[in-house]
Amino acid sequence: MTTDIQNSPEHAPSPRTQPGGRVLPRAISGQELVLIGVLIVLWVLLGVFTPAFLQPQSIQPLLANVAPIAMIGVGMTIIIITAGIDISVAGMVMVCAVVVAKLLAEAQMPLPVSILAGIVVGGLLGLVNGLLIAIGRVHPIIITFGTANIFLFLGLRIFDSKVVNGIPSSIAVLGRGEGGRLLGVPISFIITMIIVAIAWWYLRYTAGGRHFYALGSDSNAAALAGIRVRRRTILAYLVTGLLVGLASCIVIANGTQSLAPTVGRGIELQVIAAVVIGGTSILGGRGSVLGTVLGAILVQTVSSGVIQLGWPSQLANLFVGVAIIIAVGADLVQQRLRRKA
Amino acid sequence: MSQATHTPRQAEVKAEASRDRMTGILRAILTQRVLLVFILLVVVVGLMFIFDAVGLMRGNYNAAYMAGALTNVVPLAMLALAELIVIVTGRGAIDLSVGSMVSLVGMTFGFTYGLWGFPLIASVILAVVVGAVLGAVNGVLVAYLGFPALIATLATYYAYGSLAIVINNQQPINSPEIQGMYATAQPVPIPGLSGILPSIPLGIFLFLIPTVVIAWYLLNRSPYGRRLYATGTNDVAAQWAGIDVPWVRMRAFVLSGMISGLVAVVTVGQFASARPDAGTAGSGMALPAITIAVLGGVAITGGIGRVSGVVLATLLIVWLNAGILLLFPGNAGTQYQLLALGLVLVFAALLNGYTNRRFRVLS
Amino acid sequence: MCRRPLPGASTDYSIDIRITTKEWTLPDVHPTAESAASAPTTPVPRVKLSAIAKHFGAVRAISHADLVVRPGSVHALVGENGAGKSTLIKILSGAESPDAGTVEIDGRSVHHSSTTDAIAAGIATVYQEPQLFAELTVAENIFIGREQRKGLRVDWKRQQVEVAKLLELIGLPARYASMVVDDLSIAAKQQVAIAKALAQDASVLILDEPSAILTDAEIDVLFDVVRRLRSNGVSIIYISHRLDELFRIADDVTVMRDGRTVGTHRMADMTVRSIAEEMVGGVPVGSKRHVDHSNEDPLFELIRLRRSGAFEDVNVSVAPGEVVVLYGLVGSGAAEIAASVWGMKRVTSGEIRLHGKRISPRSPRHAQNLGIALLPADRKGQGMFSFQSIAFNITAGRIPLLTRFGVWFDRRREGIVARDLVKRLAVKTPSERQAIGAMSGGNAQKVVLARQLVERPKLLILEEPTQGVDVGAKEEIHSIIDDLAAGGVSALVVTSDLPEALRIADRIVVVRAGTTTVTFGPGATQVDVLAAAAGDVSGRAA
């Protein structure tokens, strides 16, 4: 049974829709394309001015350093998409790293067990954040400021004011030296890219992934639409914790045989910088892990480039600050044009 | 018959009245954050005295010790007041860059007073002016260009911190003039009361008390304060009431920069050196300042927060920390300070949330 | 035009859709308006509300309401503000439950206690500005929370097929499926919200004043959609203040007045005037003594004022001590005119004159300094500083006035000023230091009004001065306006409350479609004004 619902004769036949066509926004946002462009320009310029830059021996450590930032960045991106934030990742990195280092160096546990332990510990800490935020219904920035201090305390207590020495070189398989590379790429970077790919797929194609965006866009409306807001929120912080656990192992692998109680310091702001440079909106509801990876690479390129050029290494942070302003500023202008149009 | 029903009802009424009274007291304690922090302060100091009396402490927790600890109050309370002024403007306003501003202004002060021989007063004024300019950058980004405050001040945190380190090639400035600044951090006896009260750090009188008085005036007795609270409570209504909302926000960040500039002078005195990482070393100065502001009752959503709450919260944290140092030997002391700060903040935040839901107000 | 012409808003897309109605209609329903219309009391009505009553505390919102909606019909629900329409809609959509009466859907009695239950029963509501997730695509918004899944993954293909069908049904091109909602016009957002309702198998669709904020072209599109849904057997309850447009779209109309349904008619039997008459009833409205100011020099004038996209050719004059009402329905442009005079929005051309001198307010502050005061329409959003004291709220608009030497805010004088106004406006409060947040709507409104009176204004602009205010406070506020006018203050009142307009005005200027149309002096009747505001074009049908 069909009904002709055409109601005015002047309407001409419309083109038929293509079932299975695109139903999602574009895979790569404008900001990500711009970032890729900026990165290419930067790499070419650095390659021209400092011939050492484009050599494997400087690209490899750059990628190895991108790995932990981008990996934690995946979690942070999800959190920021839900309109949250996590200041406590530095403290989490310290706890996870010292646990893994001590298991390896002092308890002589096998590498997989130690890594797993690190991930579990990270997950537990993330769960604490998630539960406090979802059930206490307090602004995440405040709660994670608090837990940041508590996690730092835990980390420092476990360190017991001593540097952990004698971390076995088995951990180097994650990305240090020749043994830590596959086809010349640090294994830590490969793992990170796999996680990024999974997260990208999950956030883009699954109902659960899309619910993170809905939640960040309007949590009340999300609850009305039947989305379990609390569960999603806890999940975001839990996933971040798990990723911090793994990233901490990479941090150890990127270091030496010893681990000092300064591990992780300042990493929370580096991660947030990578996320916002990547185009994720701090107001929630918008963002992608692809942008975060690009942001992390940009930050590391700047740091590495400054050193290669023989400038004071601390100058890198000035450029990072400027990059944040430009990236977020470009996004603001774009938003404003969109509203005006 | 009537009596039989009367008595239980009377008891009921009585129970209800006492329940009402309990709710009233709970309400007062929860909604009057100054009261809660004050009670906590008395409890903490009382506990410390008890711990001291029963011999749990490695040193004497007495008035002189507490007075000595006040040195730490000066920069912390001043920056917490800066955060108060910024956070009160609402819409997620926050200033992550205060620590970096302290570092950078400290270095410029090192140049002007320590190396270029500017007079002290001129150098201090210049430090405040430089702070104002740095704060104005934050203000323009947030108030006029629409950057989220968290992002704008994260960016300037990086930029200012980096400049502070690069500006003198990573070297601190320790000229004799700068070392002479140490006098501002020394305790001085209070004239006429020297026998009764212990010596108090000079910085309290030179920097903290003037800042507290000015902040109190600005927030409570100046026309600007009215506009500040109005903006933080409801910026749309403020606009309809004829208040220039962006200008109010802008000035809050400028004030934060000015206070940071003054704190830079304080820290130069405390370290007897202009250090390029003065405000950013360790976990930096911004995080403790924000923590104390929140503990003192400043609502991250804006419009709520008082000078007295912030000052009491600073005293609470500093005297708690001082006690912890005597309770736990060595590094453990500083570590337990982190734990205490974290627990107190989480507790205060959960309490804020609960209070807002239960009583819908917080003052 | 500030609204950008969007594909969804224009009429140039083409439709030739043959869609199986099986998914969209109930099998026992003849899906054409004509066949349904020929039998007004078909055995099983889609919606039947009987003897509904609802109280909010002591306030009686609905005393007795009956509503019968035929399957596959467009049923208009009209009534003055406060007649009980929105409460009735809330009951039907599950947001409120009735104190008495029954709700039947397709002959089955239902007791839904939440909007979710109502949606499950096939009742969906689309509000003027629909709640959608701005950053998600149209397709995602339609299916959010109820995604079609294939394993972990969302089954985009299946969703796409369904979305394409829905979009065709509501007249949006299929490519809209992948557009981000934030990029759509309000009109297209409403259409998406309708599609979302249809995806949830709605058989009753409530449209709550959808046309108020649409352009004429957008309204045409909306009506196309409504007609198509009707022919697919969906029943539509259509709420609107624009009586004229009902003739283009509605089959039946139910009129509400003072919490009662007072009549249900076939649209064919009605005219704008006859509906207006039934809406206002025969009750005379208490009115103050109108004063004729026509011989006086105007204090305030708007001359051919225009702001592109909002209003044009606006001409108003207010004499000293005169109360002029700008009467217009939501979306008429009256509020925009007030915002422009207040310096919140720039005008494109035309003149604003005060005392015969041309002024151009740049900001609210500037307007204040010129002697203008304004009471904003949205008390909570634009007026109140919720957790601050009454005194704070009263003085917030006049801070410089209470500042000594430019640096010292005089709290003592603040208290005196606040106490004085609290007394003058009879604000019920133990102290002026009490927080405003806990006060009743009427009291809070008086406090916000007091802010405008700290310094006696030359021109007082009042936007919806008694919205959400109880009857007693409403009368008090009206008396305050009378007294101010008697004292020589000129008042320009923007209201969509007709009895209020008649009660306080010396003259009523009707604003319609962004321009001033008719002016009524003393002796105007409710029916005259309502018909003029609704565009008295009786007989103009679809």
What does this molecule look like?
The complex is a heterotrimer of chains A (341), B (363) and C (542). Chain A is mainly α. Chain A has a single domain, classed as ABC transporter involved in vitamin B12 uptake, BtuC. Chain A has helices at 30-49, 56-81, 89-105, 111-136, 140-159, 187-205, 207-217, 219-224, 229-254, 267-277, 289-308, 315-340; strands spanning 2-4, 181-182, 185-186. In chain A, strand 2 (181-182) and strand 3 (185-186) form a beta hairpin. The longest helix of chain A is centred in the first third of the chain and has 26 residues, at 56-81. Chain A starts with a strand and ends with a helix. Chain B has one domain (72-183, 202-355): ABC transporter involved in vitamin B12 uptake, BtuC (Orthogonal Bundle), CATH 1.10.3470. Chain B has 14 helices and two strands, in the order H-H-H-H-H-H-H-E-E-H-H-H-H-H-H-H. Chain B has helices spanning 2-31, 33-53, 63-87, 98-115, 120-144, 149-167, 176-180, 202-221, 223-233, 235-240, 245-271, 286-295, 307-327, 331-359, and strands at 187-188, 200-201. A two-stranded antiparallel ribbon of chain B has the order 1-2. In chain B, helix 3 packs across helix 13, helix 5 (120-144) packs antiparallel against helix 6 and helix 13 runs antiparallel to helix 14 (331-359). The longest helix of chain B is centred in the first third of the chain and has 30 residues, at 2-31. Chain B is globular, with a radius of gyration of 23 Å. In chain C, the strands form six sheets. In chain C, strands 7-10-11-4-12-13 form a six-stranded mixed β-sheet, with helices on both faces. A six-stranded mixed β-sheet of chain C has the order 19-22-23-16-24-25, sandwiched between helices. In chain C, strand 10 (204-208), helix 7 (216-231) and strand 11 (235-239) form a beta-alpha-beta unit. Chain C is globular. In chain C, 53% of the residues are buried. At the A-C interface, strand 1, helix 7 and helix 8 of A face strand 1, strand 9, helix 5 and helix 7 of C.
